[in-house]
Amino acid sequence: MQIVQQLLFVVALGVTAWLISKRVGIIKKTIQLGKAEKRTDRPNERLATMLRVAFAQKKMFDRPVVGLMHFVIYAGFLLINVEVLEIVLDGIFGTHRLFAPILGGFYPVLINFFEFLAVGVLTVCVIFLIRRNITKVERLQPERHRELNGWPVLDANTILGIEIVLMMAILSMNAADSILQERGVEHYHPVGGFFFSGFLTPLFAGLSDGALVAVERIAWWAHILGIFGFALYVTYSKHLHIFLAFPNTYFANLTPKGEMSNMPDITKEVKIMLGLEQPDATEAPAEIGRFGAKDVTDLSWKNLMDAYSCTECGRCTAACPANLTGKKLSPRKIMMDTRDRLEDVGKNMQANGGEFKDDGKSLLGDYILEEEILACTTCNACVQECPVLINPLEIILQLRRYKIMDEAQAPGSWNAMFNNLETNQAPWKFSPGDRFNWADNLKAND
């Protein structure tokens, strides 16, 4: 019977690893569709940023209570995986609590610490479910934010439910295990008492040895298969940020917020026109394929990684002045729409042997509306608020640049401003020579 369990476990592990690697390969390919962008400068500063923001969760603690609860789940996810390592090795080798003889008296201390984390994670997940579905935190409600309708709400509740089930499985497994140890059942060697799961032992105390073994095995399998399923599910979920937060913060933009990058080819042409730079006689004029971005392939690979890293927390949208005044713009929706487009592109590539075939759609128009990108005030509030350093503004600016420079479709008021900038070097329709008339009036009044 033991060898059968080992074979089943190895098969489950292998299938899970294959499915995850396949999914990761698709995500990698879609991110690589983005344009090249250098983000490897200042490595020490980048490493410090990643450790501070992704590892230490610094920006989450801008709201201390929520930050602390999120940290409990985060710490539980990282540290409980040590026990998962033991479970995986037990599954492969047919052992039981493999690390117990190695760690000796420290083993029950470690398991009790993991149980403490499990109870913490379980409690916080319940609180988060209450915040989403009963007290109804405004930024998490689909009635107010249309991008949350359907799958996003189900996804968030599903992941919290899975985490609760996984934590209950750990505690149930340890509770049944403790009783079996006390009874001296073969294969369940005494390793010490477990505090939190001890509260569950009265539920199982009246069961026979065979029933207890069944409970322990069911809980063991439920926990490890749940972990495997969770690991695969995460690659389809917003919770992919659990892994991508680290590279995303490492490759974050280190330039000051508000600095907008120009198109190098356009900048060069303008400098030549102003006499600030001389054209290279040996170099053929650069051919500019497209101004800005119409689809995901026009964005940079970092913009696409941002989309996959989005936590859908809504802090960006809650801080957006355009959204607060009732306009359609939601920075969270910009990132979710970009990810949705990437998902569709990935499915297209899968169906066509790894190559993308034109499907007649584009990010701008079919996913993100013109009205949304024109509402942006470029205030950088969304960039400032993001806990994993995502920059929705870069995508908005690229889409807007395409709309105005490539399609020549700017609002009338914007065209008036552009004309004034061209003729008067200022947004206002006054001659540069009259710019200081207001000061002359002040002198006259003196």
From TrEMBL:
Domain 4Fe-4S ferredoxin-type intervals: 301-332, 365-398
GO molecular function, one example? oxidoreductase activity
Task: Check the record and name the InterPro entries matching this protein.
Answer: 4Fe4S_Fe-S-bd, 4Fe4S_Fe_S_CS, HdrC_iron-sulfur_subunit, Helical_ferredxn, NarG-like_sf
- Domain of life per record: Bacteria
Give the record's keywords alphabetically.
4Fe-4S, Iron, Iron-sulfur, Membrane, Metal-binding, Oxidoreductase, Transmembrane, Transmembrane helix
Q: Where are the transmembrane segments?
A: 6-25, 65-89, 109-130, 151-176, 188-206, 218-236
Q: PANTHER family, per this entry?
A: IRON-SULFUR-BINDING OXIDOREDUCTASE FADF-RELATED, IRON-SULFUR-BINDING OXIDOREDUCTASE FADF-RELATED-RELATED
Which named protein is this?
A: Oxidoreductase, Fe-S subunit
